[in-house]
Amino acid sequence: MTIAEMLPTGEQNAIPLRDLIKRTGMNGRTVRRMIEAERISGAPICSGCGYYMPATEDEKARFVRSMRRRAHEIMFVASQVEGVKL
Fold first, then answer.
1. What whole-number distance in Å separates Cα of residue 44 and Cα of residue 54?
2. How far apart are CA 7 and CA 74, in angstroms?
3. What is the dihedral of CA 46, 58, 72, 33, to 10 degrees?
4. Are strands 46-47 and 51-52 parallel, antiparallel or unpaired?
5. CA 20 to 30 Å from 35, out of 27, 28, 77, 83?
């Protein structure tokens, strides 16, 4: 069974990582790597206060915006640190 198959639909039904760890019997790192692999393979697994499958295009779009915002923040911080002379 995939992680995506274990997840409920809708942000309001999100499952915390600790519950996925219990359900799978795997450690957190392994579960997160499985989620990443499934996302790359096309499963629209969203996260916020837990993991869920989007119920609407709006839920999916909010998650995508959140991920892009995080990526932008990470890239900004990396460029700031990169520019610091030692």
1. 7
2. 28
3. 10
4. antiparallel
5. 77
54 near 63, Cβ under 8 Å?
yes
pLDDT, tens digit, 9 for 90 and up, residues 34-54? 999 999 999 999 999 999 999
Tens-digit pLDDT profile for residues 13-40: 999 999 999 999 999 999 999 999 999 9
Q: How confident is the model at residue 4 (pLDDT cuts 50, 70, 90)?
A: very high
Q: What is the DSSP string of 12-81?
A: GG-B-HHHHHHHHT--HHHHHHHHHHHHHTT---EESSSEEB-SSHHHHHHHHHHHHHHHHHHHHHHHHH
**C-alpha–C-alpha distance, residues 51 and 16, integer Å:** 6
